[in-house]
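DM from R.C. (forwarded with permission)

"hey, sorry to bug you on a friday — could you get me a structure for this? deadline for the figure draft is monday and I only need the backbone to look sensible"
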Amino acid sequence: MTPPQVKFDRGALERVLARAAELQAAQQAGDTGEGLTETQLVELGREVGLDAVTLRQAMAEEQSRAIAPQDRSLTSRLLGSATVSAERTVPGTSAEVLDALDGWMRRQEYLQLKRRFPSRLAWEPQRDVAASLARTVERTFGGKEHAFSRAVEVSAFATSVDATHVHVRLDADLSPVRTGYVGGGVALGLTFVAAAGVLLALGVMPVVAALPAVVGPLGGIGIARMFRSPVARAQLALDQLLDRLENGELKRRGSLIDALKQAALPLERPRG
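My reply, with the result:
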């Protein structure tokens, strides 16, 4: 009688594959060192029936997580992280995707290139008068929010999955936004505590005088936590950017600064 076949659920399958990878790595440690190369991992996956493209996508996602920024500060633990991230597999090559993102960040978000790597780009906000004016005009008359105007850095990491698809990870560090809200909350709390001291010095009943010392810090915490709203907008902006990238909608579109430059061309006079 043939024994019944054992079935593995998803959790068990992941554990089996992880253990198999450990065992194969241990067997090959003398020749290749610890760990598995991409080729070895693809071969291992093929042996257990995993599609090579799917496995490469999983490896690309793992590589992107390995370089993700980590916010382990006390402020982050108390109030929440100021770093937002989004990732997705999209059509195209690494060079095409990064080029499209670079153009969009420059023209639509008024960011400038900060650092360039073979598979990663990092931008920072433009601080010049033209960019600041363009943001103000678009926000005032067009209702457009520039979610990254106060970011320390916005970065994109692209890893090829196959010849026609790339896994993209976007990260934005909004620490200055959180710092501003925390500073406002601390200032409010200290002001109310000082007011309580003044009331006590003036002879006001202690129970009444102590109220600002209680209300102030609570209000300060509430203000500090308000930074989550702009962080949520930045998260939405990253997701929408990946939507456009996935649907091929990151077409070249001029910015307000480009339009102003074009309008100024007829006014220029040739020298001579």
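R.C.: lifesaver. The CA atoms of residues 82 and 175 lie 5 Å apart.
me: no worries. The longest helix spans residues 175-201.
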